[in-house]
Structure formats: structure tokens, C-alpha cells
Amino acid sequence: MITGATGHLGANLVRRLLDEGDKVRVLVRERGHEAALDGLEVERVYGDLRDLSATRRAVAGCTHVYHCAAKVSTIDGDAAHRREIYECNVLGTHHLLCAAREAGVVRVVVTGSFSAVGHRLDDPSAPSDETLQVYPFERLMPYERSKVLVEHECLKAVIEGLDVVMATCCAIVGGNDFVPSRLGRTLCDFVNGKLRAYLRGGFEFVAARDIVAGHLLCMDRGRTGHKYIFSTEFLMLDELLGMFAEVSGVASPCRRLPAPLMLACSEITSFYLSRFHPQRPQRLTPGAIRLLRKCRHADLTKSRTELGYSPTGIREAVAQAYTFHQARGAITHRAARAPGAHPLAAGAGLPAEARS
Length: 356
Fold this sequence. Notes:
The chain has twelve helices and twelve strands. The protein has 356 residues and is of the alpha/beta class. Helix 2 packs across helix 3 and helix 3 packs parallel to helix 4.
């Protein structure tokens, strides 16, 4: 059973499991985005993780569970937003783990976030491993706090007898991004000329197929109660945007602005939008800027040595993401390359109808 099957990670994980011959059940919300499941032979159970009875129905009879669902957000938001983050991520995980224990599930793999991994206070860019705890007195986004609490729920479930392993995910790049993700929207905005500015910063990025492989490794080889970090490559933003330009053939007029200036403007904009237009999307939030400025790196020693994790390359994942969004009509720039024109992107990460 998979939660979050309509999201970027879940959509790729479902396809990998089906390719390997597994029977897959998914928990999806009523009136949710289900394009990621079109044409797939999966059993759908409709419900919400915040509803314990619906979660029990979804888990019943399953032996293995992948919990990929989460509400991802980089805004601080109002009280209602923070409550939704808590209920979806923390309470939802609690319900899933309770239902899994009651149903006798063999193992649960829970998707974690690199945001819930700590860093050295004297050097945030130093590689972080699974032993580093989040410093609680920093200014954290509600999402970051929620993912720390998700890990606490996992450890409590382990104490109560459930076999749980945590797969720590970085920013995902790749195809089958149906919703799309924040990074997918950034790629489209860059190519379409809507991304006008960026800052000096960087983060760990993981290819979609690598994070899927990481989840399977956690299910097969992970140690109960442990978490494992999965990344493909650290990139500065200008490197990532350079790859966007390379695969699309479009040189966007995107300018790098001083991070302090962007942070100050973002704080004002976010304050206004959160209070008067809370439903309006925010592209570059104060939380995202603070995170990118830290240039955090990941130490993959544990996942490599214990699980045999071997990441591929982020450049090909960027090409796959571009090809996917181009084929779905999200790329509108006239000078942009046609789907598959880039040698790395041909036929990669596309829905079946786009490959035919």
C-alpha cells in the first residue's frame, strides 16, 4: 500500500513496483489529483489519513506499506495553515502507523525530509548525516517541525513493536511529476521566462529513480528504527538553472540578486500574503531562502555502506523532468526544444501516451 501515490515520489514508486510485478493499493483523497494513476492497474481506496477508519481500510490485508504522503510547504502561514500541516503530516502518520500495527503489517517505510536532519551550527554547509538532530531554537518552517515530529511518531511506533524504517528525501528531480512539484514549477517558469531572479544558494537534489531505489532498499535491507539519507548531487542554484537552460535550449533572463535583499522583500511579501491572501501561492518564501543560503550537504555514507545505495546523475533527471513537462504542454516558450530533442531526455519519464 502506498500513500501519496499521486505525488512526485509516489507516482514514480507506484510505477516501479508495478514493473516488478507487485500488487499495489493506493490511498487517495476524494476529488484529488489522480492523473498520476491514469491507466495503472492499482486498487484505489478513497479517504484521508486524518480519518483513522479510512486509513484502517486502506491498510487492511497489506503486508508492506510505503508512507509517502505529506503536505509540503515553505511558508509560515496562519494558524489554519499550521494546523493543516500538523494534521496532515504528524496526525496522519500517527494514524497510518497505528493502523499498520493493528493490521499486522510486516514493515512500513516512511518518507522523511532532509529538513528534519540537523546541521553543524558553526558550519551549516558541512555534510550532515543521520545522527545530527535539528536545533530546536532556530527559526523553522512549520513543515520542517512537522517532519521532525513524524520521525518521533516512527520511533514511538518502533517501541510499540512495529517495524518502521525512514527514507530521508531531498529535493526530487525527474519525470512523472503530475501535480507538479515546486521544483517542477520552477523548471517550467524558468523556461517560460517567468523566473526573473534567484539568489546564491544550493541544496541536495535527488533523481526520482534514485529516491525510489532508496525506498526499496529501506524496505529490503534497512534496519528497524533507522533512517537513511538519499541524495544524488548537491547543486548551487546557478548550476541547476544552467542545466535547465541546457536541456531546453532557452537562455532565460534570470538575474542573481543579493540574498539579504531577496530575504527582506520575501519577508514583507510573505507577511502580507499570509494574512490577506493565504491561498495565493508564494514562489520564493523566507523559509526557502533561509534553507538555500545554508548550502546544506548530505553525507550518504550510511545509505551506501548499509544498503548498497548507488546514486545515478542529476543531469539526466533534469532532462527527464523537462521532457515530461514539455510533453504535457507546460512548456510554452517558442524556442524551447521539442520533447526528446535533448539526447539525455529521449523517451524518459513520460506517460505512455506521450511516448507513443
